[in-house]
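pasting for the record
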Amino acid sequence: MRCLATALLALVLMATPAASQEIPVRSGDHEGFTRLVFRIPPDTVWRLSHRDRGAGLTVDLPNAVFSTDGVFDRISRSRLKSLRQAKPGASLEMTFACDCTATGFLYAPDMIVVDIGPAPVPAAPPVIPLPAADELLRAAASSDGSARSGADDLLSFPQGGLPVSPHSLPLAAIEQQLLSQIVKNADREVVDLDIAEVGPRRSLVLGNSAMRPPLPDLRNIAVGSVLDEARGGAAARKPLQERRRACISDQELDFANWSDGSSFSEQVSTARRALFQEFDRLDRAAALQLARTYAYFGFGSEAIRVLSLMDPPAEGARQIWAIAAAIEGRAQIADNPFSGMQHCEGNASLWAVLTTGEIEGRVSPGPVEQAFARLPDHLKGHFGPDLSRIMTRAGHSEAARRILRSVARSGSDRRSEVALAEAELAAASGDTETEEHRLTEVVTAQAAPAEAPLALARLVEKRWSERGAISESELELAESFAQEYRQSEIGQEMALAHALALALGQEFDRASDRLALLAETGRAPEWTRTADRVAVLLAERADDITFLAHVTQPGPEITAALSAPTAIAISDRLTSLGFPSLALTFTARPGNRHLPPAGKLARARAALASGRPRQTELELATMDTEEALRLRAQAASEIGEFRAAAEHLLQIDDPHSAARNLWLAGAWEEAAKTVNTRYGAIARLSRDLSADLERPPTTPLAHAEYLLENSSRTRDSIAEMLHALEQGAEGS
């Protein structure tokens, strides 16, 4: 029976397709060549084959998939034309757009570099420019003691240089040629330069032992390449004078051996028996081992308590203490031994992230993920949700998803914490439906006493950002959580979430009372932000009576908490309700001394509604937007400056209103020039009617006929003008 089960298991494993392994490809254009960088598992066998106008890269991984997305975002197609892989595990075929060749080398155990450049042309013998005559004399004299004969030989060369053998060159010329080639290949990143410390140093100078002048201070110059970017980009962007802390190696930390594999009770009992020697002396080695055991199994407080027995601390105790503090959820640890080690390749990178609580700068998540994968399952379940949130906030969404999948495989029962992390990841990805589902799952879960209030606070925050409504059950739950956790660390957070939930439910009286009560214990930034949000909802959702009741007699702490956009929204609504003087008080607060354009427009509208057109002109004197020019035209018209009003209206392409103001200003000629406008037509008719009649030199009978015709045209023009005026009165 056992043999049959083994055979079935082997068949299942053989039938299961192997997962493909992705190989990321980075690219970069350099002067004279294009570079591709491939990240592979260490010690992977690879081959680079050549063909006409192309090459192929093969790695010894049966299911390797080359990830070429974004390769041509960084490079042109002048040298590399296309990349193609027929199927997983096949070679990556590179097609060239020029007569180029590809050269490959292993930059690091896990990094292949392929350079694509023009095919080399057989070079002519080197032509070395001749040095100055006095240098030649000194070089010849120092080499064989015969300055005259050496100079004669050298000066007989043709001017401009000639093909020579390096053996026949002066030593100074050979040195110059060698340095030139080294610098050139260093620019192409073929060789690495081990630069000496900045400052004066001795070098070999023929015929002269004087020291060369010191090099300039180059500490503020950073050098990077596509290789640095493939490793995360951090090295190329850090100043050279910034010295990173040396990484704590995995051998030094040795976290994997903090447990010997036996049960927790056996290890703890063994370490506790050896903790004190005779005369109650503390065995420091046993204390360190006991602290390591506690920390390995996730008992951070116990590990810290054991470490506190040692005075002074033993070597390595600080690292154990930092890991134990991270287990207890203490971020931003003072004197953190892992500080500045997020760039490391080993386990130190993971502990540097967990003890800091955030990703510092542009740190590659790869080493952190690899270190997390080496943790025991119980620590994966403990740290996984927090590490996923850290990755999400740093913009590493895919890394966050992989960490959560690893937590699920570990068999962790911390479903509520994982759901919270999934909700934050969904919010970062714009998946509001999944975020809503995960938060609701945590809020309604029966076994989530610690995570449920935080999930509800997140849910209220989501309702606010979407300007959604909150249900009655959620409002009651927010009130109960605020009461239950009022004396805890999250007491203020839950009270503020309750106040915002009341505002979302349009219970503004209770929300204001709640905020006023919390203001008595201090106004933290979180309180100010919540008060401002409640005021926004008041301006957007409250009925007129409720709105006026709260804004006509606001508390001083509420008024001081308003941001400029919120004060502008309240001011605009007060103006529309007919309280322009009160509206001006909200945009004239000390905190709004430098108002944005929307604030200036709000003040101008309020000033115009309160009969202060000149203040409107002053508020908008430097603005030329359409709304500002229209308000300025209205203010100028109220003052009686109709021509200025018409100029503002013509700037915003409103000829109808401009013609009316020109007509009111008596500028009939200018008004008549406005085409297809009512007041333009009235102005033209007024101009024609006021024109003097010319008496034609003709007979009396013809003159009488002319007068009759002109009288008829005049009556028609007057009728047309009256009709236009009646239409204008109806339109107004």
